[in-house]
Amino acid sequence: MQHFMDYFNDYRGLPRSIYFIFLSRIINSVGAFVGPLLTLLLTDKIGLSTAEAGVFVTMSTAVFVPASMLGGYLSDRFNRKNTLCLLTLFQALSYLACGFLQMSMTIPYLLLAASFFSSAAQPASGAMAADLSVKSNRQGAFSLLYLGTNIGFAVGPLIAGFLYKSYLPLLFIGDAVTTIVSVIVIFLNVPETRPEYDIEEEVKSEDSERAEEGSSLQALFRRPQILVFGIISMFLSFSYSQVHFSLPLYANELFGANDGARVFGMLMSTNGVVVVLMTIFIIGKTKMFEASTNVAMSAVFWAVGLGMLYYVSSLGMMVLSTVLWTIGEILNVTNVGVYIANNSPKSHRARFNSLYWIISGTGQAMGPTIMGKYLLNNPIKNVWALTFFIALICSAAMFFFSINEKSRMGNSVEKQ
C-alpha cells in the first residue's frame, strides 16, 4: 500500500494556487463540448464537405499564431491573471452566442473567434504554471494540471455526444457556462504570478531560466535547442492532429453518422479515463528520464496506437488503439511543458511558451488541410499508415536530440 501511495508524492506540497488551477481545469474540461465534435459540426450540421471542413479546422488552428503572439506579449508585459481571465471570458461569450443562433455559416466564424481567444489565453496559463513551480516540482505540477483537464474530459465527450444528437444549442451554452465558472475560480483564488527580477544580476547567472535582455526572437536564438525541439514537435503535432480530424470521420465511415458521433465520444472518454487512471503511474515510472527522452517515447506510442487503425474496424480494437496513443499523449503533454519551462528565461516565459506552440502548432494546423485534400482521392484508412511513419521518424529524431542534450549539459557542467 505504501508503494502505491508513493506515486502521489509528486502532487503533495505544491503551491496552493496550483490546486486551484487544477480545479479550474476540471470544471472547464467537463464542459469542453464543442472542440471534440468540431469536424462533425462542420460537416453534418453546417453542411461543409470534408475538404472544406479540413480548411476550416486548419483556419481554427492557424489563428493560434497571431492569438498566441498577442497573448504572450500581454502576459509578459502586464498582469498574467487578468489577461488569462479576460481572454477566456471572451471565448465563453463566443460559444454562448452560438447557442442562440440557427445553424449557418455564422456559427463557424464565432467558433473561429472562440479559438482565437482560447489560443491567446494559453501563454498566460502556461507561464503562470511555470511561475508557481520550480525545477524540482515542475513535472508534478504540470502533470497534475494535465490530469485536471482530463478528469473533466473523461466525462465531457459523453455528454457532448448526447447533446449533439438531441439538444444541440446546449452544446454551446454548456461549454460557455463551465468556462465562465472556471474563470471565476482563477480570479478569486490565484494571485498574480509575474516574477520580479534585476536584469543586471540575471545576466550573470548560469541558470537556464535566467532573465534575458532583448526581444523574444533574440532570446530564442540564444537558446537554439528550443527551436530544434519545436521543429520536431511540429511533425509530431501533424500526426496527432488526426485524432481530432480523421478519427471522427473514420468512426462515421465504420459506424454511420449518428453512431459514429457516439463512438467518437466514447473513444474520447476512453482517452480521458486512461489519462486519469494512468498518468500518476506513467509519471512515476518515467520521471527519471530526461523530458526530451520521454517525448521520444511518446512518439513510439503514437506510431503504434494510430498506425494500427489501418487494420482495425471493430470497436474493441479502436478502444485498444486509443489506450496506446493516450499513453503517448500522457508522455508528451507532461514533458513538453516541463522542457520549455526549464529552458525559458523568466523575462520571456509567456512569449517563449507562445513561440514554441506556434512552431509545433504549425503541424497541428497543417494536418486537417493536407489530410482533407488527401482524402478526396484516397481511402481514409491510408491516413493511419502515413501517421505511423511520420511518428516513427519523429521518435528517432527526438531520441537523437535527447542524446545531444545530455552531451551539451555534460559539457556545460565541465566548463563550470
UniProtKB/TrEMBL annotation:
InterPro entries: MFS, MFS_dom, MFS_trans_sf, MFS_Transporters. Residues 17-408 form the Major facilitator superfamily (MFS) profile domain. One of its GO terms (molecular function) is transmembrane transporter activity. One of its GO terms (cellular component) is plasma membrane. The keyword Membrane applies. It is a multi-pass membrane protein. It is found in: Cell membrane. This is Putative MFS family arabinose efflux permease. It comes from Sedimentibacter saalensis. The lineage of its organism: Bacteria, Bacillati, Bacillota, Tissierellia, Sedimentibacter.
